[in-house]
Amino acid sequence: MLNDRIKIKEAPSRVGDKVVIFGWVEDKRIVGGVAFLTVRDPTGVIQLTVKRDVNKDLFMKAGAIPRQSTIKAGGIVRKYGETYEIVPNFIHVLSIAKHPLPIDPTGRTDTSLHKLIQNRPLSLRIPAINAIFRLRALTKQVIREFFIEKGFIEVDTPKIIATATEGGANLFEVDYFGKPAYLAQSPQLYKEQLTMGFDGVFEIAQFYRAEKSHTRKHLTEFTSVDLEVAYADYNDVMKILEELIKYIFTEIPKRGAKELEILNYKPPQPPTEIPRITYNDAIDIIRRRGVDIKWGSDIDGEALDKLAEEYPGFYYIIDWPWDSKPFYIRRKGDLSESFDLMMGKLELSSGGTREHRYEHLRRNLKEKQLNVESFEYHTRFYKYGMPPHAGFGLGLDRLMTIITGRENIREVVLYPRDPETVAP
How sure is the predictor about 169, in pLDDT bands with cuts at 50, 70 and 90? Predict the structure, then answer.
């Protein structure tokens, strides 16, 4: 079926040729004795023109095809003014669209986000929505290129685990053949272990947090871009992350220009340098702007709004209080070798230097009031020459809201999962 097919975007280079296209009928007009079908595929749109006095049967058939039906058509490509058309000698209806449709797949009628997600396959016929997910695929490709060029190895870590990665709550518990297990919150402990044999590893995968959050930036299933690098500290991986952000925001506008044009949006310019402010400095800035915040607290809500007034672009908050960070982060007094990458008031990434010394790691577990023995499956490797290492996790879904200019994280996820949404 595909042997003689061209994509619609290729039609302008095939003027005068016989071609075959597949697509769906987006629109239909009958003007006098001429039927005009607007046909779209994922690459573009073209018009089929059928004249009654040339082929009456085909004219009648074209006029009877319901909008959004899937067709195969073949004929001659012609240029008509500044546009292109195909004069078909056949049209085969592959699948008829039943009306009324649950949403308007042309995008001309406003539809709620909830309804778009409920009808996601059909919504992908809306050019802007299709463009979002093409950009998402491109972004993952660009990220992989960057990491591979650096010599890092792509890995796959388990998503069903026996112990909480960070020792906290917000876990989805599952029955694993009669034993309790959990869906992974991150690949953290596994990617640390892998630095024993690799200089650096990365993973792009789904992870899970049982948070009953109802904001525009939280999901219960999310995609994380994770990196862990041997013989590195948090300064090293902040530099790598900065280079990654520059690469993404340089390459996407070039390679995704068509999709961004459809969205009528320009992503932020790649940063020349991402500034770093300490947690202490961040607290001072927030207090100066009139928000009473306690040292050691997380920075969120109104506090982040105030901080974003001074730093509207990309910036790091570094050296967080150790009490606010997981047990695997390296401690330095009351602080830690840690960072968050921010874009205005949106947190995109979190990372830091990891504690690679066995006894110090066990001490950290105790101070976090975690069961040391339950983490022995992980910490035992730290007795056998675990190298110093550092890494980060970058939220792909949040990153995509920045790239596409969307307000709600659900707009950039094909099948978003939140406390009210489960798989159908």
Answer: low
Residue 404's Cβ-count burial label (10 Å; 0-12, 13-18, 19+) is buried
How far apart are alpha carbons 231 and 21 in whole angstroms? 54
List CB contacts of 421: < 8 A, sequence separation 6 or more: 117
- Bridging pattern class, strands 83-95 and 335-336: unpaired
* pLDDT tens digits for range 112-153: 999 999 999 999 999 999 999 999 999 999 999 999 999 999
Structure tokens at 356: 């690679």
In angstroms, the CA 227 to CA 225 distance is: 7
Number of H helices, E strands in the chain: 12, 18
Residue among 230, 226, 227, 209 nearest 218 (CA): 209
- In the numeric block, which tokens belong to residue 258? 């068509």
Residue range 122-275+311-412, CATH number = 3.30.930.10
| Measured distance between the N- and C-terminal CA atoms of the chain, rounded to whole angstroms | 32
Instruction: Compute the average pLDDT of residues 264-291.
Output: 97
Which phi and psi (to 5°) does residue 5 adopt?
-85, 145
What does the pLDDT look like over 340-394, one tens digit per residue? Answer: 999 999 999 999 999 999 999 999 999 999 999 989 999 999 999 999 999 999 9
Q: Which of 414, 143, 148, 139 is nearest to 256 (CA)?
A: 139
The answer on pLDDT for 166 being more than 90 is no
Whole-structure pTM value = 0.95
Task: Give the sheet arrangement for strand 173-176, strand by strand.
Answer: 160-161, 179-183, 173-176
Residue 423's closest CA among 215, 217, 214, 206? 206
pLDDT mean over 310-328: 97
Which residues face 29 on adjacent strands? 36
CATH of domain 8-99: 2.40.50.140
d(CA 253, CA 257): 5
Give the phi and the psi of residue 393 in degrees, each rounded to 5.
-125, 130
Domain ranges of the chain: 8-99, 122-275+311-412
The C-alpha atoms of residue 229 and residue 317 are separated, in whole angstroms, by: 20
Is 280 strand, coil or helix? helix
